[in-house]
Amino acid sequence: MILALGPNSVSQRPTTENLTSMTKGVAYGIIAAGTWAAFSVAARVGIDSGLNAWDLTAIRFIVAGFVLLPVMIRRGVYDLGGIGWGRGAVLAIGAGPLFSLLYTYGLSVTPFAHGPVISPSVVTIGTIGLAAVLLGERPSMVRILGVLIVITGLVLVAGSRSDGAGIGQLSVLDLVFVVSGLLWASYTINLRRWKLDPLGATAAVAVISMLVMLPAYAATANVAKLVAAPGAVAIQAFMQGILAAVIAVIAFNNAVKHLGPSKAGLFPSLVPMLAVLLGIPVLGEWPNGAQTFGIILATIGLVLAIGLFDRGRN
C-alpha cells in the first residue's frame, strides 16, 4: 500500500488539505462578519433606545460570561482551561470590555459611518503588519493589492450613504476606533502566536470580562433605566451577549485557526458592507450606486487578499 502511493498523490494531499482548511476559514470568517454586522446595527438601535456604551458592554460580557462559564468549569478554572490567567488577561485586553467600550462609545459620539470604516480598516492593516513583524508572515503583492482594493471598497460603502452624506469630517474622537482596531488586531495575533483553541479562547475572554464587569456594573448601573426598557435589554442581551461575544468570536477564532491572522483579519472589513445589505430588509434602505460598486470591489479584493490566487504559498 505504501509503494502504491506515487509522488503525485503525496504532493497533492497538502494542497487538498489547504483548500479544505481555506474553505472552512472563509466560511467561519463570513459568519463572524455577518454576525458583527447585525451586532453593529443592534448596538446603534440600543444607543438610540437610551442605553449607553457602559450598559451595552456590561450586557455583552455578563451574558457571555455566564453562557461560557460551564465550558470553563469543565476545562478547569485553576489554569483557565489550559490557557493560563496571564494569557487570558492579555486576550481580554484585546477583545474584552476595553475594546467594546471604545467602539460602542465611538458609535454614540460620531457619525455612524465612521466606526465601520475606521476600526475594520485598522484591524486589517494592523493584523497584517503585526503578523509580518511578530510571526514572519510576508504577504504577496497580490494579497497587498487585494487589501488596498478591500479598503477602497470599504470607503465607498461607508463613505457614500444613501442620504447623500459622506463619512463627514474626522475628529479626535475617531481615535477611539483606531485604538479599538489595534486592540482587536493584537488579539488576533495572540490567538495564532499561542495556537489557542477557538472555544477555549472565547470562554477565557468572556469569563475574565464577566468577572471585571459584574461588580463594576452592579455598583454603577441605573436599575430604573433597565427596568423601564426590558425589551431593549433583552434584545441587546441576545445580540451582544450571544451573537457578538460568543458566536461571532468563536467563528472568528476558527477563521484565524484555518487561515492565519493576516487573512482572517480581513473579514472585519466586510462588516459595513454586510450592514448595508442588512439595512435593506431591516431598515428599508437600499444601497446607492457607489455603495453597490464598493461591495463588488471589496468582494474582489477579499478574494485576492485571502490568497486564493497565490501559488506555492500558505
What's the quick description here?
This protein has 13 helices and no strands. It is mainly α.
Describe the model.
It is a single chain. This protein has one domain. The protein is 77% helix and 0% strand. It has 13 helices and no strands. Helix 5 packs parallel to helix 7.
Low-confidence runs = 1-14
**Number of H- or I-type helical stretches:** 13
Counting structural domains, the number is: 1
- The outline comes out as globular
**Strand fraction:** under 5%
What is the N-to-C order of secondary-structure elements (H for helix, E for strand)?
HHHHHHHHHHHHH
**Assembly state:** single chain
End-to-end separation: 29 Å
**Integer average pLDDT:** 81
Number of β-strand runs: 0
Strand count, sense and barrel status of the largest sheet are: none
Q: What does the radius of gyration come to?
A: 20 Å
Helical content class: over 70%
Computed structural class? mainly alpha
Walk me through the topology.
Layout: H1 7-48, H2 53-75, H3 85-95, H4 97-109, H5 114-134, H6 141-159, H7 175-193, H8 198-220, H9 223-228, H10 230-259, H11 261-264, H12 271-283, H13 289-306
Helix pairs in contact: 1-10, 1-12, 2-4, 2-8, 2-10, 3-4, 3-7, 3-8, 4-7, 5-6, 5-7, 6-13, 8-10
Can you tag this structure with a few keywords?
314 residues, mainly alpha, 13 helices, 0% strand, disordered N terminus
